[in-house]
Amino acid sequence: xxxxxxxxxxxxxxxxxxxxxxxxxxxxxxxxxxxxxxxxxxxxxxxxxxxxxxxxxxxxxxxxxxxxxxxxxxxxxxxxxxxxxxxxxxxxxxxxxxxxxxxxxxxxxxxxxxxxxxxxxxxxxxxxxxxxxxxxxxxxxxxxxxxxxxxxxxxxxxxxxxxxxxxxxxxxxxxxxxxxxxxxxxxxxxxxxxxxxxxxxxxxxxxxxxxxxxxxxxxxxxxxxxxxxxxxxxxxxxxxxxxxxxxxxxxxxxxxxxxxxxxxxxxxxxxxxxxxxxxxxxxxxxxxxxxxxxxxxxxxxxxxxxxxxxxxxxxxxxxxxxxxxxxxxxxxxxxxxxxxxxxxxxxxxxx
Length: 351
Known about the structure:
Structural class: alpha/beta
Number of strands: 11
CATH class of the largest domain: Alpha Beta
Distance between the termini: 83 Å
Shape: globular
């Protein structure tokens, strides 16, 4: 037996009104929850993702609502892609390198010394996808954007790197397994650490160095209200490699959308890849100049002879990558050769 207590009508009315105003209603036909690894007030978020979301909403006249959230808004960085696959969220801007072994074809772009800038690299990656050479990687999702970052510098907590021997024993945060293999060839100890944990691992002494973007080092939170740049002392303009990134959508959601709304999403997604590459390239150049003149840092670079030595020492990483692709039934030789051909083509076209 149970007793049902009757709530006074005035209180019930007040609670009902509170519930009405605390739960925002959406008149949209489709709501796209969009998770990102980027934080607010950064170029990728403010100049690429936000404009895309607003443009889709406006052109669809409110039939599509894009609920974009920054880093941590829907989940941890490494959780976003699986959430899209499962349909927990509909869209995500993430990094392939957070999922070792999951994007083997795309990892060709992360091999050492593949490209000099994100424009040529991104153009090549898009063409590889168009030609079906990345088909296995993205079969479970709808690709809205693929791009690569400008080749990373290396930041350290104090170690000056001027030769291959200086890498030996250096505990380095790497953006992906593929980049990590190249670092291991140099004698470093590659560590896969999510970006939200980099600051803590530097502060604890667990990490000696990071392969990371110029601008991202000044915008990624570290410890005690600092940025990562505040925790580091030496920067080397290494330009060894860089990670691939993606903007993807849940396949079932995409398939169920009306054709006219698909056209709107695709129209504005068309600029996501190259727009991201151009903005990141420009932002990296600005921040690079600032940090090279920042008295907090000892700034170093590799001359042509040192870079040639680095290329020679990391070359076996490419052979290992091809062998691993063969085990997966992927023609790594063809994929690598085509990627190099396209990068050179777009590099020359950009001049």
